[in-house]
Design brief:
9-stranded mixed sheet, alpha/beta, single chain, 33% helix
Length: 351
Amino acid sequence: MGGNRKAWLTGAGMVLALGFVALTFTNASWLADAPRGTPWKVAHRGIGQYAAGTGPNGCSAAAIEPPVHEFIENSLPSLAQARRLGAGMLAVDLVPTADGKFAVFRDTALDCRTDGKGEVRKRTMDELKQLDIGYGYTADGGKSFPLRGKGVGAMPSLDELLAGFPDTPILFNLTGFTPSDVDQLARTLRGSLRDVDNSRDGFSGDTPAIRRIAEHFPNAWAFSVEGAKACQSDYMLGGWTGALPDSCRGGTMLVTMENSLFLWGWPNRLIQRMEAQGGHMMIAPPARDGSPLGGLSLPEQIGEIPSTFNGHILIDDMWTVGPALHPSLDKRRDDEIERAEAGLERRRQSQ
C-alpha cells in the first residue's frame, strides 16, 4: 500500500515537472524572435503642466507642480514642442461644440482651466476662442496663477490641429462622445484631407464611442480603456496556455511595468502573440490626475521598458522624458533644463 502511494506521488511529481517545463518553454520570451520596429513615443496632450493629483472638485489644474515651463496642454505650441522633442505621435482630447465643430480641450466643462463657465459643448468655437485656457492653473492653492493671461485664444479647433499636423500620427480621445458626436466627427474627418482609416492614427474613449468609430473607420486603431484593461486581466489569467483571450484579439493591451511580471511571455512572446492577432500594446502607468490614461513622468522609467518593445509608450511629461529618450533633440535652454531637473527632484521626493 505504501509502495503504491509512493509510486503515485512520484508519477504525479513527474507530470507536474514536465508540465512546468512545457509551460516555461511555451511562454519563454527568449525563445521568441525579437519584434521588428521601434516604439511609438506618444506625447499625452503635447507638453503641459504636470499634476501629481487632483485639486478641489477634481480639477487637476488646481494641483500642478511649480511650473518649469509655460506650455499649456493641448495647445498648438505645446503639441509642436512635443514633436520637436521627439514625440512620434500626439494624443489629444476632443470635445464637441455648439456649432458642430470640435475643440481640442481636456474637460467637458470650462470652469477648471479657463475663465469661462459651463459646458464646452454649449459654446461655439468662436466663443471658446475668447477664453484663456491658462486661467485656472495654480501650484500654491490659488495664491498665484502663473499661466493666467498666457492662453487667451489658444484653444485649438480640430480643423487647426489637422492643418498644423498633417503628417503626424494622432491619437484622438473621444471620452464623453455620444454616437451622434462620433458621426459628426467622422463627417468632419472625411471632409478634411486626412485619411484616418489607417493604422497610424487612433481613437480612444468610452466603449460605445469606440464601437461607433470602428464602424466608420474599421482600419484605424481604436480602443476603450475598459477594453484594454480587460485584455490585460484576461491574459494574466489565461495567457499561460499560449492563447490570447477574445478581449485581446484585434484589441489593445495596457501594460504597466509593475504588472508586466504577470504577463505570460513578456515581452517578446507576448508581443508576437498580439501582433499575430492584429493587436496593439501600450505602456501607460496609472494616471495621478484622475485621467483615464496615464503616462511616463520620470526619465528613469525608460530604463524599465524592454529594448525590444515596439508598441506605444504614453508619455505624460514630454518636457523631461523626451530629452532623455532623444538627447540630440534637446533644444531646451540651460535655465530650462535646470528648472526641469529641480522639478523632477521635487517629484521624486513626493512619490
